[in-house]
Amino acid sequence: MNCLVPHITVKDLTMAYGDFVLQRDMNFVVNRGDIFIIMGGSGCGKTTLLRNLVGLKEPARGQVFYGEVSFWESDQEEQGRIMRQFGILYQSGALWTSMTLSENIALPLREYTDLNEAAIREIASLKLSLVGLKGFEDFYPSEISGGMRKRAGLARAMALDPEILFFDEPSAGLDPISSRLLDDLILEIRESLGATIVVVSHELPSIFAIGNNSIYLDAEAKTIIGSGNPKKMLEESQNPIVRAFLTRGEQKV
Amino acid sequence: MENARFENAGRGELDLSQPTHDALLISFYGIWEMGNDLPSAEEALNKIETASAIRRVSFEAQNLSGWDTGLLTFLIKVIDTCTQKTILIDMTGLPQGVQRLLALASAVPERAGARKETTQEPFLSRIGTATIEFGRSLPELLAFIGEAFMAFLKLFTGKARFQRHDLWLIIQQTGVQALPIVSLICLLVGLILAFVGAVQLRMFGAQIYVADLVGIGMVRVLGAVMTGVIMAGRTGAAFAAELGTMQVNEEIDALRTLGIPPMEFLVLPRMLALMLMMPLLCLYADLMGLLGGLIVGVGMLNLNLMEYINETRSIVDLTNLCIGIFHGGVFGVLVALSGCLRGMQCGRSASAVGQATTSAVVTSIVCIVVATAVITLICDVLKI
Ligand SMILES: Nc1ncnc2c1ncn2[C@@H]1O[C@H](COP(=O)(O)OP(=O)(O)OP(=O)(O)O)[C@@H](O)[C@H]1O
Ligand SMILES: [Mg+2]
Predict the structure, then answer these.
(1) How far apart are CA B331 and CA B341, in angstroms?
(2) Strands A20-31 and A6-17: what pairing?
(3) Which one of A21, A84, A90 has the shortest CB-CB distance to B254?
(4) Which of A210, A213, B33, B142 is the one with CA 20 to 30 A from B273?
(5) Long-range contacts for B207-210 (Cβ within 8 Å, ≥24 apart)?
(6) How far is A188 from chain B (nearest CA, A)?
(7) Domain count, chain A
(8) B-chain residues near A20 (CB < 8 A)
(9) Distance of CA B156 to CAs B150, B152, B162, B268, B271, Å?
(10) In sequence order, which ranges of chain B are alpha helices (DSSP H)?
């Protein structure tokens, strides 16, 4: 933890849908082993930023480096190799609806490991029990609740013990206790696997509990207006918008 | 005047007055609730817009006995107009609740640039846009076909990544489960063909040639075409809807970010299954068609059973059968390609899935008809 090694470096990133620019000139670094929080009001482009980072949407301008490699300037094979280190939890879960939960988790394992079926099933059960879904192996995504789908998505993201995990609002739709357990799980993944974790989150308690670095995206300014450790930001940030967000609007803009 | 108002306090009413020459006072009476036939805002707005002297608008609600969204929408219209004309608004006369809700409604300002522009595009420009889009869709189509081809190459080198049991499942869905509908349609087509032929041929006493008509017709083209159309409606549509829904739910994104090419994982098994099953279904369809013809020939025209079978055997040779099955194979590729293409191109909404499905069926049927014409032409040139 003493020496910081950059894992993801974003340089001058501008993202847009057609002419509609969401955020411009973003620069930030996510270090190895960070739990990096992306904050911002609803609709400011957090999900879009994730899509730019994980290679689903090409940025309008700018670069994303993984280690030394510029993702969007690499060829397809290299991109595929980088993407294989990712585990992604989508905002809506994005479970494969025609497969049971355990098959959902098994698919990446089948594709990328030589494990036999029994081992794969055991891993799937383990991952499910990590997110509190023990016993739901043979349920289809349509047969479980929204919050459960979220957790199953999380289990799938962790299937291959990836180096970088991207979570889009992991605790949205969860009760406070499950949400707390999830925070513990995220911290635990970081500790035990040394993974780098990028989290989009609105949950203040969880942001303060897990985040050690963050950025705040603003829809008005269309760029990053605050960054750093969330706890420090709460104490030190001078920006009224960031303060309002971190104090739930109690300190007025 | 106040008392006169009170008599019909049930309905919402309003009164405009000008206490001083530069101020407008809007007074509300009765119950301002939705569906209560409220007065329109026209009058008040007109007054604000035309009387240029007005610098200040205030409200009075002493005799307002009830309100809901109906009042709020009225007020928002007034406030918007005033803001446009930079007229001062004094809301103190309104009930506390109304003031709070209005404050909430204006708490988050409209996002600049977020509102969709709805401009009426001129006719020529629309044609231009459509042409450009069509031009763009062609390379997309070619890229899709190219990718599908690459996926097949990978299949032959054994590196394609899909789940074997997916393939078996799709084979079952597109093969065995299609048998009932194929039986029904092709039997009936055979019957109809024989029927129509019989009426004409009986005039020459040449009933036996019904066997030739049905035999050549079904085996050479009709069996394949009917199967193709059935599969376009049944399986092509299912492919498009399935892949389209996966697109909507980000399931395809989830595959892509895992590094699993959707082309190999989803499209390849579907194309493979249909390409394997179509020729077989086609063979079965031919058989059903011939059976239909036989029923009419023997049952209605009183032809001898053996006589009919012999006539059919003499006319339906291997060439005809092969041409029919070739048709089937081609249609299999076309239906699978159109279904998967439309599914993968699908947008991210429920209506986009509907469009993808429709478009898949239309594309497959058009392709089937065009392909039939082309193959027939080629056979004619080659004299087979
Ligand atoms: N496919 C798209 N085409 C055009 N505009 C889009 C598209 N997807 C999102 N947007 C716009 O981009 C903006 C940001 O969307 P995004 O999903 O990134 O928000 P977000 O920050 O993740 O919000 P939330 O916290 O509510 O999930 C929104 O204003 C939305 O209108
Ligand atoms: Mg989002």
Answers:
(1) 15
(2) antiparallel
(3) A90
(4) B142
(5) B207/B297, B207/B301, B207/B303, B208/B303, B208/B307, B208/B308, B208/B311, B209/B311, B210/B293, B210/B296, B210/B297, B210/B301, B210/B303
(6) 23
(7) 1
(8) 113-114
(9) 10, 6, 13, 12, 14
(10) 2-7, 42-50, 69-84, 96-105, 123-156, 164-174, 179-201, 210-216, 223-231, 237-248, 251-257, 262, 268-299, 305-315, 318-344, 350-382
Q: In what order do the strands lie in the sheet with B56-67?
A: B13-17, B23-32, B56-67, B88-90
CATH number of the domain where residue A112 is located: 3.40.50.300
CA-closest residue to ligand 1 atom 28 = A43
Determine whether the shortest distance from the Cβ of A45 to ligand 1 is under 6 A. yes
In a domain, A1, yes or no: no
Residues on chain B touching A80 (C-beta within 8 angstroms) = 259
Residue of the nearest CA to atom 26 in ligand 1? A42
Tokens of B324: 């029919």
The residues in A 36-95 lying below 8 A from B, measured between CB atoms, are: 43, 54-56, 80, 83-84, 86, 88, 90, 92, 94-95
Where are chain B's structural domains?
A: 2-105, 139-381
Residue A252 lies in a domain: no
- ipTM of the shown complex: 0.73
| Distance in Å, CA B126 to ligand 1 centroid | 28
Answer whether A96 contacts ligand 1 (Cβ < 6 A). Answer: no
Q: Report CB contact under 8 Å: A20, B111.
A: no
Which residue of chain B is at minimal alpha-carbon distance from A219?
B111
DSSP 8-state assignment for residue B159: -
A17 lines ligand 1 (CB under 6 A): yes
State which of A42, A48, A51 you would mutate to test the pocket of ligand 1, scoring each by most atoms of that ligand within 8 A of its C-beta.
A48
The pair of three-digit structure tokens given for residue A130, joined into one six-digit string: 């990590």
* A129 occurs within a structural domain: yes
Looking at the domain that runs over B2-105, which CATH code has it been given? Answer: 3.30.750.24
Optimal mutation site among B147, B251, B263, interface A, most CBs of chain A within 10 A: B251
- The residue in chain B having the minimum alpha-carbon distance to the alpha carbon of residue A17 is B114
Tell me whether residue A182 is in a domain: yes
DSSP three-state, residue B41: coil
pLDDT in tens, chain B (384 residues): 344 444 455 778 888 888 888 888 999 988 887 767 778 888 888 888 887 788 888 999 888 888 887 788 788 888 888 888 888 888 888 888 888 888 877 776 666 666 666 678 889 999 999 999 888 888 988 999 999 999 999 999 888 888 888 999 999 999 999 999 999 999 999 999 999 998 888 888 888 899 999 999 999 999 999 999 999 999 999 999 999 999 988 899 999 888 889 999 999 999 999 999 999 999 999 999 999 999 999 998 888 999 999 999 999 999 999 999 999 999 999 999 999 999 999 988 888 899 999 999 999 999 999 999 999 999 999 987
Which domain range does residue A239 map to? 6-246
